[in-house]
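Quick one: examine this chain and its backbone structure tokens and tell me how the chain folds. Here goes:
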Amino acid sequence: MESTLTPQQIFRKRAAGEPLNEGESPQIRRHIINVTLDNSIGALNRVANLFCQRGFNLESVAVGKTDDTSLSRMTLVTAGTTRKVEQVLLQLENLVDTVEVDDVTDLEYVERELCLLKVRYTSKNRSEVMDILDIFKGRVVDITPETMTIEVTGPTKKINAFVGMMEPFGIDELHRSGRVAMRRALVHGG
């Protein structure tokens, strides 16, 4: 099929993550989207429903007030082809409560996630747990004779690595906030 397409069609399909030939699967990418919206009843639900109605799974949703108390900022992480995500973003911009939509996926951005993890420890492995905690720049926020509740913040890859390092000790409970992302104000070396 690729031979029957014009060079422009091939370029557009590749850019949108769509297959060029029959039987090929589309290129699915993870997208990080910031939505600023009115802080009103049902606004967050309308945004989440828009993605769900179009068959998107929301991997992460984080919401909070902005410096303007009449607005909230919602950071969504989802996966899909570029074309399908762009279509949803256009529809999202038309929602009544939406003030701004920003897909930061291909931009320079800062990303953070909060992780609270309750891990088992003994007197024999306590220092090992604390050494790992120190490497990840985390801190103990609660402690009992058998468990420690640890707080770690950072990019998702750091959180994933930390959780992996704690698994051998026995994780009792794990809570993750979901990603929040913000465009970098000043981009160097670009």
Observations:
- The first strand starts at residue 29 and ends at 38.
- Helices lie at 7-16, 43-53, 82-93, 126-135, 156-166.
